[in-house]
Amino acid sequence: PASFVCKANKSYGKLGLRLELAGAKCLVAEVKDGAVSSWNSSCCSGQDVRKYDRILQINNESDTPEGLKSKLEAAEGVVEILLQRPVEVNLQCEANEQLGATVSKGFLLGLEVTRVK
């Protein structure tokens, strides 16, 4: 999946994101009023922050999901957030066929492919 950057100005208030930690991922669970919704109203098409987007870096720094969440909470001024949008794929197979992939129940996203055989 492609990644993109959100530059949200936290100088005038809250970021406006509710995050969920799901295994090794820091995911956007909700976009509320705040710096990110302001970004969304003026950004290029396809670079708006949405529910289920995965946060990869804060101000060019990677970290654990917990660390990313802490960096967002502590950040001041303009915050650069590198995100990745999930890709939805619909698969159909016959009942007697094997899928050829390992899936697990994703926290917010339903089933998630964790390995392709």
Proportion in helices: 10-25%
Encode the helix/strand succession as letters: EEEHEHEEE
Strand content: 35-45%
Q: By helix and strand content, what is the structural category?
A: alpha+beta
* Quaternary status: single chain
- How are the strands of the largest sheet arranged? 1-5-4
Q: Round the Cα radius of gyration to an integer and report it.
A: 16 Å
Q: How many helices does DSSP assign?
A: 2
Give a count of the beta strands, DSSP E runs of length 2 or more. Answer: 7
Please report the distance between the alpha carbons of the first and last residues: 20 Å
Low-confidence stretches: none
Average pLDDT level: 88
Principal-axes shape call: elongated
Largest sheet: 3 strands, antiparallel
